[in-house]
Amino acid sequence: ISRFVLQKTDAKITNNNANDAKYQPEDKEILKKLEKIKKEVEEGINQYQFGHALHALYDFIWHEFADKYIETSKKREDDAVKNVLARLLADSLKLLHPFMPFITEEIYGQIKKEELLIISQW
Fold first, then answer.
1. Deepest of 17, 19, 65, 66, by most Cβ within 10 A of its Cβ?
2. Model pLDDT, residue 11
């Protein structure tokens, strides 16, 4: 996933919300799902249900992000899809960081060289 996103985009992330007019319906849908999974993972971690949190995150990353969104994004070259891909990768790494810190920190360093993942905002 990381290799594809880094090759397709320059990994620059803007903070446009899911209602931005330039986003296609699939962009808006995946961003809404991203917000939902953030809440679910945070809730799972806060309740010490690490297995549930990680399983939900795994399902999102592999089934929604990789299987569906990346496949549909291959047909598009616009800035909106590049921004969404970069944002999904960065936020997925943040969510995965408590579970696999060394790998996520290394990949995140390729995206944001000046910032450490461990101190970035959730």
1. 65
2. 59
**In this predicted model, what pLDDT tens digit does every residue of 27-58 receive, in sequence order?**
999 999 999 999 999 999 999 999 999 999 99
Give the separation between CA 94 and CA 38, rounded to whole angstroms: 10
Q: Can you tell me whether residue 24 is helix, strand or coil?
A: coil
In sequence order, which ranges of 24-78 are alpha helices (DSSP H)?
Answer: 25-46, 50-59, 71-73
Reduced to 3 states, what is the DSSP secondary structure of residue 119?
Answer: helix
Using only the alpha carbons of the chain, give its radius of gyration: 14
Whole-model pTM: value is 0.87
Angle, alpha carbons 70-41-120 (nearest 5°) = 80
Helices (H), the chain: 2-8, 25-46, 50-59, 71-73, 79-96, 101-111
CA atoms of 113 and 109, how far apart (whole Å) = 5
What angle do the packed helices 25-46 and 79-96 form, to 10 degrees? 10
- Residue whose structure tokens are 């990768």: 89
